[in-house]
Amino acid sequence: MHTLISTDELDERRHEPDTIIFDASYYLPNEPNNAAALFLDSHIPGAAFLDLDVVSDPSNPLPHMVPPADLFARTVAEFGVGTDSMIVAYDQRGIFSAARVWWLFKLFGHGLAQVASRKP
């Protein structure tokens, strides 16, 4: 399986019941955009918003540290993610924060994670 999939392939797969699409957009605190608000305004149909702050270690004072495995598993399970789910992450910036979500899934052993990218 390839790590990157095209938007055309995503469009073909997005109706499959085992495909879970995450808008993993994130903007730095000094940027004027709000990822959650932008998601509500426009997103890929069927996508869910996955906030990087929610899948970070809440006990660590540093931002965006890797969460404990059980916290990550519980959080993504709330979105219906199972071991056989095809995970696709994208963000509204190209490939910025989606790569972090992809990496977290890989880190915790999920072998079916991909990042959607626009055609070159």
3D structure, described in words:
The protein is of the alpha/beta class and 120 residues long. The chain is 28% helix and 17% strand. It has four helices and five strands. It has a five-stranded parallel β-sheet with strand order 1-5-4-2-3. It is globular, with a radius of gyration of 14 Å. The relative contact order is 0.25.
Shape: globular
Task: Tell me the count of domains.
Answer: 1
Full CATH superfamily name: Rhodanese-like domain
Low-confidence parts lasting 5 or more residues at pLDDT below 50?
none
Q: What is the strand tally?
A: 5
Summary, kept brief:
The protein has 120 residues and is an alpha/beta fold. 28% of the residues lie in helices and 17% in strands. It has a five-stranded parallel sheet.
Helices and strands in order, then pairings?
Layout: E1 4-6, H1 7-13, E2 19-23, H2 35-41, E3 48-49, H3 69-77, E4 86-90, H4 98-107, E5 113-117
Parallel strand pairs: 1-5, 2-3, 2-4, 4-5
